[in-house]
Amino acid sequence: MPFAVYVLGLAVFAQGTSEFMLSGLLSGIAADLGVSLSAAGLLTSAFAIGMVVGAPLMALAGRNWPRRRALLLFLAVFIAVHVVGALTPHYGVLLATRFVGALANAGFWAVALSTAVAMVPDRLKGRATAVVVGGVTIACVVGVPAGAVLGERWGWRSAFWAVAVVSLPAVLAVLRSIPGGRGTGVAAAPVPVRDELRALTGPLLRPVLLTMALVQGATFCAFSYLEPLLTREAGLGAEWVPVGLALFGAGAFAGVTVAGRFADARPVAVVGTGMAALALGWAALALAAGSPVSALVLVPLLGLFAFGTGTALITRVLGLAPGAPTLAGAFSTTAFNLGAAVGPWAGGLALDDGFGYRAPVWVSALLMVLALFVAATTTAKGRRPRAGERRPSGTRL
Length: 397
Known about the structure:
15 helices, disordered C terminus
């Protein structure tokens, strides 16, 4: 595996810490800025919406740039908005910085995925994807719990400062390790946008992207409100929040590692097993959340299946869209974060309606049932080709 692929994973670690760390800071942000817990949860949704909008737009804007230049620009903007977020006393400004930061993060993700996959042969594409996504899981294991500890001791703003500081080595690493030209294993002349869009809007990809959005919606819905679930429902002290976040991240890292090894050879089995386990797992957590031991046992298992399934779905999209080297990663990022936007919003609605702190987890279980329905419907259609037609390979999820 080229060293540059691991560099991209390092940069994603810093950005993933920012994306996920609010799950351990919501109460502090809400109290400091004088907003409700659900309003604080919308900061996660704002980040996800920025990722949804930014992934295709930033990928298109930077498709003619040398990849190193694009990656450095996105990282610079990301660092700047975290400095502003750490300084502002206004909720509206903080909300805006989350959106702008997400635009930069989305651009980085789209370029990073396409760059990593272009650097390796076909048999290693799943592993290259897993290395990049693995940066997010390491963020869950190390960065997010560390952010929760910082927030508990020195306030939530210290976590934003920490993200800005941790991102600086990523700038240096990208500068030294990523080739300066467009090359990185792909043709210098980009594929026409119309051809890329045609490859991405076909009937094979639409259900995979929808499934990815639903799976990530379930993940972010429950994860965004994990802190109040552990402290106010399971009865654990605030000191247990970083432990819970680290357990989720450890499970996520294991899931990405497993998916990276098997997603290329057996994508349908990895995705199907993971989705079924998540539907049952979120329901089990909602039922057992009152028991601290049960909650802490289920959290890492859910992290494992959530990120293992998500990684396999990203690999699936990249494999089904070889004709879209720029936008395949962007569409994967959009689907991933469309779920991340809808999930916390739906969980916040359930909280505001007075259904309790377990409500977001029940919403996650419902989203997984919908994802299974989409996958089952697509599989059934794939098994019934029209008379005289051969079923195209890759139709099934």
